[in-house]
């Protein structure tokens, strides 16, 4: 095949040129995003039920929803959490479930359940989680001094949101911090009492004044007209002019007995930017959009907003495209430095400039053609697929160097140029195919890992497979063709001798080789002993998900653990920011209930998230210390968590599950365990280091107890009492004014006094209009209650969060503790999911090793020789662990990718070395007539000589190409540094030991014993 293709250089050249042009065209159509579009198999149903307790939401809303969802296809887990005024049901599905169909099915079930849910509650929101739900940027909208906040809310909702959604590539615009305009009616109690009017008269007057005719039409001759009432309300003045009729028939204008004016609705949450109230808009891109094209459009739109709406300040924050740019820059850096150092190393070792030029052409060509595979496999350009390409570049350089060195060696042996190109490729063809297959055998099975990790590995596996297969195509066809064309008019004399540097390396290699083979048994034993010693360094490595990136921003998650309203929450955050003024550069806070459609985290009025950006790490550390001290002194009840602000990776991989959780359920009833009883039981709990889960977190509450006997005695109804309490303490909605899609609520608002005063000075009226003070029928008391009610498929549960290091050894004691108290005890949490993932990884690793063994056994026609390759891998892994430990680097995703890169190169070299030994043994026995032992000695010795140059060139080129990252700064360098240390460690220690391990292991597996003597 190679001979045929080389004989038709124009046809091959045109074919590759067509591939390149076609790939460039397809590349321009590929979507560019931060992460691949992953459907996380979760759906969250969010409930918002104002003025409702956790118990009420659990009983009336969440329990019916859970019961209605249990029959969903592919449902694995179902949990709910009810809080004050809010609740959510989290549905987890099998990863193979088609989430778009599951989303439709959940909405259909919600529609069927509508009749069984409270009538005054808004329809539950159904949120489907996808990696594209992570916003690419946040737009801060801050009204200037004196500007009406409600008008800015309308501007954002009706204008800015729509303008952003019209931009190419924008899928969704989400808003938080909106405040609605309402018309409030505040009764003047003394005047109303003097006129004999009650609040019911006022409410009735407003409702009557806002009545609409239900589609009535009249005929006038040949024409038909629809009627409408001319008295329909439109403004606060219209409401104030309404007549109110008293029980004695007297009427009075509503404005004379109540204050009527426009105001903002009672807020349940706020957004703050730099300490000022404002709105925040999160922008989400379309799946097929290119982030690097969408972001400039957003920046241009914001500049136009600044000109068009000078009454508002705009600023963009938390731009996630920086991670993608870091990935692209890393690939460009790898290509640039890989190409430059490959050129330099090849020039030093081969003594001419033509060979480096061939590498310089083949590297970009392979990369560009790989994008054609991206298109046909529906892969986007993202951080994950780019890391796969960067991973494959090391193997690409290795393959190119091996082929070129082999062709060069054939020419040195005296072959004509054409034959050297053909034989040079054919000789290493099967070995290179085996090395690519073994790399894929190690990597591709990771696609079958469950969860988000498996979905991410799919993109990486496809990109690695693409560039490795293309690299074979280039190495077998394009490289020999370019070599043939560039050296066509050059004589054999143009091939220079090896450089002094390489000759010195070769002499050193031979010297060590001869000393090791003088005592081969001891030498092999020492190398085998190095494997556990090197691998033991993994115990000193810290294990992390992503490498620690130097971040100058933090996210502070707060729960005041007090019954405060949203305004008090805002005042506390503003007071805190005022104390920290000058310490931070950017401050952003979402507090209380979030209005985001796609928000699926915890929602509570007493909670707040505070994002702070600092100029440097020193300022970040100082403020973190100040915050702990501030809360310890001023708000000891508050729970505080300070962590690095999560990027898109963190948000995708973060779990809302506790790490190790003990779930407790009463067997006698479905009610939660009372706080007093639970506190007594906790004193006898087997573990000391335990924290209470959401279902056991307590908050203070006021309990109203009605005197039913006295109500009956005075002829008063309970419904009448409840209605009066709702009007007094809640935001009582009288009616709505609806105009062209705009809804303005009319609310009854009473004096904002303490509840005891309100009970004393407000009345309930009997049948004859006789007033009775509310406090005559209501007794109150203070009590503690649970802030949340948590449930799963089996009903209500309460949980304890444990330290995992202790829990493993005390599961039996915890079960016995539960049985004594008639409690059902279950264990759950991220710990068990991690254990399952580890088991899957071990299973996949075994499959990968078996595949690797099968491929190598087929390649070598031997059951023993593949073991040599398998045992070289621990040497490389151990070398990588040692360098990671010495450099103080953790074992994380990036260092694991570095291990795969390094192992790919090591496997390549070991396979080629064994293949060369096998070939030389046959040659020396058949052609030179040497005995088996003599042929083996000579084959081992000369195979080491032949393979030394490409091994050294590959290792040095790869290490030098990656070394600039070690000394670089910024996000990209922080991400890639663990990868670089893994590769450097494996290719220095691992490759050096493998140089001698392969011939020594081959010697003993061939059944040979005793020292080897070398002449000369």
Features:
1016 residues, alpha+beta, 53% helix
Topology:
Blueprint: H1 2-6, H2 9-27, E1 39-48, H3 54-69, E2 75-82, E3 86-93, H4 99-113, E4 125-130, E5 137-143, H5 149-165, E6 170-176, E7 181-187, H6 189-194, H7 199-209, E8 217-220, E9 223-226, H8 236-240, E10 243-245, E11 251-253, H9 254-257, E12 258-264, E13 269-273, E14 276-277, E15 279-285, H10 291-308, E16 312-317, H11 321-350, H12 354-376, H13 383-412, H14 417-443, H15 451-486, H16 500-518, H17 520-535, E17 553-559, H18 566-579, E18 586-592, E19 607-613, H19 617-634, E20 639-644, H20 648-653, E21 661-666, H21 675-682, E22 690-692, E23 698-706, H22 708-713, H23 718-729, E24 732-739, E25 742-748, H24 755-761, E26 763-765, E27 771-773, E28 778-786, E29 789-792, E30 795-802, H25 804-807, H26 811-820, E31 823-828, H27 830-860, H28 865-886, H29 893-927, H30 932-967, H31 971-1005
Parallel strand pairs: 7-25
Antiparallel strand pairs: 1-3, 1-4, 2-3, 2-29, 5-15, 5-16, 6-15, 7-12, 8-9, 10-11, 13-14, 13-18, 17-19, 17-20, 18-19, 21-30, 21-31, 22-30, 23-28, 24-25, 26-27, 29-30
Helix pairs in contact: 2-12, 2-15, 3-4, 11-12, 11-13, 11-30, 11-31, 12-13, 12-15, 13-14, 13-15, 13-29, 13-30, 14-15, 14-27, 14-29, 16-30, 17-28, 17-31, 27-28, 28-29, 28-31, 29-30, 29-31, 30-31
């Amino acid at each position: 095949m190679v001979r045929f293709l080389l004989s038709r250089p124009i046809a091959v050249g045109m074919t590759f040129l067509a591939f390149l042009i076609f790939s460039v065209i397809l590349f321009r159509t590929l979507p560019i995003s931060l992460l691949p579009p992953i459907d996380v198999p979760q759906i969250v149903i969010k409930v918002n039920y104002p003025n409702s307790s956790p118990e009420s939401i659990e009983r009336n809303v969440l329990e019916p929803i859970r019961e209605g969802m249990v029959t969903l296809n592919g449902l694995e887990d179902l949990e709910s959490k009810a809080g004050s005024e809010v609740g959510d049901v989290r549905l987890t599905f099998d990863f193979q479930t088609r989430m778009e169909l599951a989303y439709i099915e959940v909405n259909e079930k919600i529609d069927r359940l509508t009749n069984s849910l409270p009538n005054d509650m808004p329809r539950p929101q159904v949120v489907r989680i996808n990696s594209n739900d992570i916003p690419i940027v946040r737009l801060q909208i801050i009204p200037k001094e004196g500007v009406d906040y409600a008008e800015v809310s309308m501007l954002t909702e009706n204008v800015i949101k729509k303008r952003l959604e019209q931009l190419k590539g924008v899928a969704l615009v989400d808003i938080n911090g909106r405040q609605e305009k309402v018309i409030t009616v505040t009764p003047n109690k003394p005047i109303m009492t003097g006129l004999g009017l009650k609040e019911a008269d006022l409410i009735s007057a407003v409702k009557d004044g806002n009545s609409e005719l239900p589609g009535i039409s009249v005929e006038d001759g040949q024409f038909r007209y629809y009627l409408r009432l001319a008295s329909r309300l439109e403004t606060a003045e219209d409401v104030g002019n309404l007549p109110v009729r008293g029980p004695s028939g007297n009427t009075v204008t509503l404005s004379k007995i109540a204050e009527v004016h426009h105001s903002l609705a009672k807020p349940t949450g706020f957004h703050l930017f730099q300490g000022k109230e404002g709105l925040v808009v999160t922008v989400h891109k379309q799946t097929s959009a290119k982030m690097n094209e969408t972001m400039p459009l957003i920046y241009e739109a914001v500049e136009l907003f600044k000109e068009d709406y000078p009454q508002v300040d705009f600023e963009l924050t938390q731009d996630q495209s920086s991670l993608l740019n870091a990935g692209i820059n890393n690939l460009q850096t790898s290509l640039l430095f890989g190409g430059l150092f490959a050129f330099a190393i090849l020039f030093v070792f081969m003594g001419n400039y033509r060979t480096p030029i061939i590498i310089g052409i083949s590297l970009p060509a392979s990369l560009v053609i790989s994008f054609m595979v991206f298109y046909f496999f529906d892969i986007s350009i993202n951080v994950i697929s780019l890391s796969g390409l960067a991973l494959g570049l090391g193997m690409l350089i290795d393959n190119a160097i091996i082929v070129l060195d082999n062709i060069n060696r054939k020419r040195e042996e005296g072959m004509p140029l054409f034959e050297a190109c053909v034989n040079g490729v054919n000789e290493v063809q099967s070995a290179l195919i085996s090395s690519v297959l073994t790399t894929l055998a190690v990597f591709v099975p990771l696609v079958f890992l469950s969860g988000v990790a498996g979905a991410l590995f799919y993109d990486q596996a496809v990109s690695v497979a693409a560039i490795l297969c293309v690299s074979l195509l280039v190495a077998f066809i394009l490289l020999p063709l370019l070599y043939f064309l560039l050296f066509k008019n050059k004589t054999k004399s143009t091939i220079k001798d090896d450089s002094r540097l390489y000759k010195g390396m070769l002499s050193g290699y031979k010297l060590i080789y001869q000393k090791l083979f003088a005592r081969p048994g001891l030498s092999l034993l020492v190398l085998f002993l190095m494997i556990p010693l090197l691998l033991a360094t993994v115990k000193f490595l810290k294990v992390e998900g992503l490498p620690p990136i130097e971040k100058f921003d933090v996210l502070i998650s707060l729960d005041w653990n007090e019954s405060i309203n949203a305004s008090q929450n805002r005042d506390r955050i503003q007071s805190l920011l005022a104390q920290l003024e000058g310490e931070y550069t950017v401050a952003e806070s979402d507090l209380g209930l979030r209005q985001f459609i796609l928000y699926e985290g915890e929602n509570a009025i007493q909670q707040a998230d505070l994002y702070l950006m600092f100029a440097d790490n020193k300022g970040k550390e100082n403020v973190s210390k100040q915050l702990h001290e501030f809360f310890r002194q001023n708000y000891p009840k508050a729970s505080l968590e300070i962590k690095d602000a999560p990027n898109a990776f963190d948000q995708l991989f973060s779990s809302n599950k506790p790490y190790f959780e003990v779930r407790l359920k009463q067997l006698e009833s479905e009610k939660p365990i009372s706080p007093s009883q639970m506190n007594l039981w906790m004193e006898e709990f087997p573990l000391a280091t335990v924290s209470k889960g959401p279902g056991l977190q307590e908050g203070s509450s006021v309990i109203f107890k009605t005197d039913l006997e006295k109500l009956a005695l005075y002829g008063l109804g309970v419904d009448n009492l409840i209605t009066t309490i709702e009007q007094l303490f809640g935001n009582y909605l009288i009616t709505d004014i609806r105009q062209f899609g705009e809804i303005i609520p009319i609310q009854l608002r009473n004096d904002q006094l303490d509840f005891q005063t309100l009970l004393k000075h407000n009345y309930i009226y009997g049948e004859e209009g006789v007033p009775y003070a509310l406090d005559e029928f209501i007794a109150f008391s203070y009590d503690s209650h649970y802030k949340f009610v948590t449930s799963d498929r089996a009903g209500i549960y309460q949980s304890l969060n444990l330290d995992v290091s202790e829990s493993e050894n005390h599961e039996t004691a915890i079960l016995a503790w539960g049985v004594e108290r008639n409690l059902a005890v279950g264990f759950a949490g991220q710990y068990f999911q991690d254990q399952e993932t580890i088991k899957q990884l071990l299973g996949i690793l075994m499959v990968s090793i078996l595949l690797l063994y099968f491929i190598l056994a087929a390649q070598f026609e031997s059951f023993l020789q593949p073991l040599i390759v398998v045992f070289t891998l621990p040497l490389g892994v151990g070398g990588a662990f040692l360098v990671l430990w010495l450099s103080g680097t953790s074992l994380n995703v990036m260092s694991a990718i570095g291990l795969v890169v390094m192992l790919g190169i090591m496997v390549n070299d070991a396979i080629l070395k064994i293949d060369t030994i096998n070939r030389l043994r046959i040659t020396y026995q058949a052609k030179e007539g040497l005995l088996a032992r003599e042929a083996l000695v000579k084959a081992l010795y000369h195979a080491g000589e032949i393979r030394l140059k490409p091994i050294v060139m590959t290792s040095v080129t790869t290490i030098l190409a990656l070394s600039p990252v070690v000394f670089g700064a910024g996000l990209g360098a922080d991400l890639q540094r663990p990868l670089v240390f893994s590769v450097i460690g494996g290719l220095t220690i691992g490759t050096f030991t493998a140089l001698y391990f392969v011939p020594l292991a081959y010697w003993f597996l061939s059944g040979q014993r005793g020292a080897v003597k070398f002449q000369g």
